[in-house]
Amino acid sequence: METLRALVAVSALAAVGIMSPGPDFVVVSYTAMTGARRRAGWVASGVVVGNAMWAAAALLGFSVLLSLAPALFVVFKIAGALYLVWLGAKLIRGARTPLATYADEGQGSGPFASWARGFVTTLANPKAAVFYASVLTAALPSSPASGLVIGTVAAVVLVATVSFTVVVVVLSTPRASALIRRHKAFVEAAFGSILAGFGLVRRLMAVRELPSSMA
């Protein structure tokens, strides 16, 4: 019963964190709105695996390791922030490029490239590491049994899969695709600006955390 309560708590908290606006949510939403449902599915699967890895890392004490080497964590944050800025700038640059149609879709990003985009975007988001470390510390006992550890990661995977499946299905509808085709320049520039904004803000915050000798 105690294990069930812990898993329910983890699932509820994970759902809130996963569906809160963030770089991974933006990337999946944008890909789905282009009408590329299959590609969006691959991006979403990469995001799911990224969330599972952050959850597993938190359970295995990776967050403790980073807390013991704060400078390393700050460098990691800066690298992730720069990736988000690059991804956002890429969208902004291509805002006025005509959107590919379904017929052209096979010439675009392949399944692995799409999966990698979702996976790297999630790993590049240090907020996920902090979130899972905080959530799992609050919801689980200090020394969880191996079954609870496996169940927790499985719960995160389930919640992330259901959540992003809904996003992909809803935002890849013909109506959503038609909207972005009519207003592609604005929508793509907006999504790119959001991603770049996430990256810039987090880079500034990370630089402030650097020791004076490294700044």
Automatic annotation (TrEMBL):
InterPro entries: LeuE-type (IPR001123). Keywords: Cell membrane, Membrane, Transmembrane, Transmembrane helix. It is a multi-pass membrane protein. The chain crosses the membrane at residues 6-28, 40-62, 68-89, 124-142, 148-173, 185-205. GO terms for cellular component: plasma membrane. This is Unannotated protein. One of its GO terms (molecular function) is amino acid transmembrane transporter activity. PANTHER family: ARGININE EXPORTER PROTEIN ARGO, ARGININE EXPORTER PROTEIN ARGO-RELATED. The lineage of its organism: unclassified sequences, metagenomes, ecological metagenomes. It comes from freshwater metagenome. It is found in: Cell membrane.
